[in-house]
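Hello again, I could really use a second opinion on something today. I've dropped the whole record in just underneath, so have a look.
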Amino acid sequence: MKIMDKLSTYAALIGVIGAIGGGFYTWGQFNSRLDAIEATPPVNLAPLKDKDKELNAKVEEKIQPVDLTSVFSQIGKVREEIAMLDIPEGTDLTEVYAQISAVKQSIASIKIPNIDGLKKDIKEIRNSLSDMEKNIAIALKENEVQDVMIEEIKLANSNPLGN
């Protein structure tokens, strides 16, 4: 039994020495790789920075400012006109909302650098707003006619000889 105990002790000692040796070997490999990485020259990014400056300059040349003050003033006028409208409660405005949605889509599709496209979109917006104003006027007139009809019905019902 003593031999087995001694053999297991020697085996454990050899295992510990092997593990320590493996650790030192791995540490050496790590240091040699780190030295190789440190020895390589850094990547020169100057050409990329120069190319980036050139591209930025070209992009800045292509960008042309567009004066949208007249568009915004027209939108402001339309908003004021809409705010001044007296729309009776219960008026069906689904068609108006659909046209507003169409106007929003037209505005979203505006391509700012393209002035001709912008003029076309503004014309479409004006046409849509004109249609919207017509529909609102029609709805208001329909409401007036309905009010007159209601008054006539009330008058006829209040007259005891009218039935």
The chain has a mean pLDDT of 80.
